[in-house]
Amino acid sequence: MDSIEMESYIRDHGEDLYCFCRSLTRSREEAEDLYQETFLKLYEMAEKLEIRSNPKGCLMAVSVNLYRNYKKKLAIRRRITNTAAPFADPPAPQPDTAALALTAEEHRMLLCAVDTLADRYRLPILLYYMEDLPLDQIAEILKVPNGTVKSRLHRAKKILKRKLEDAHYERSYE
Question: Which of 16, 75, 89, 173 is 20 to 30 A off residue 81, Cα-Cα?
């Protein structure tokens, strides 16, 4: 991969990838690290990856894999040292099409609710609704069957609905 090709991926998909990294890590600093590591890994593995057919999906897959590896290493370190790392601040609301449809308070409540989901539910929600990826690409990125993605999205929406209702959120969405 040459520098011109890399620049085109950064230009075309960099902003989406950064927003996705922010949502994954819940921290600006960690998101910046993950963003850079994603492009470094892309550069290192360019010959092995078939990025030209689906660059955004490939970038998201690399990012998710790096994030999972980071979480595994962090869990091992915590077990070894028997200490808990401090939690990062929740991500600030990002202006996007969803934010335009919801008021700022509704958006904040929804982001907080999504933030509390376990990764198995949070990742499909972020990939499907934030990145607008189709189910088959999400399944490929997460390395699970399509049916699993569908069931996790369904369960995540039920959990989110319950959380928002518990917070006395009166407006109903389906």
Answer: 89
* pLDDT for residue 46 is more than 80: no
Task: Quote the distance between the C-alpha of residue 97 and its chain's center.
Answer: 17
Please, are residues 18 and 34 in contact by the beta-carbon 8 Å criterion?
A: no
Whole-angstrom Cα Rg for the chain: 17
Rounded to whole angstroms, the Cα distance separating 78 from 33 reads 20
C-alpha dist (Å) from residue 119 to 8, 23, 25, 116, 142: 30, 11, 11, 9, 11
In tens, the pLDDT along 73-122 reads 888 877 777 654 444 555 555 555 544 555 677 777 888 889 999 999 99
Cβ atoms of 54 and 9 within 8 Å: the answer is no
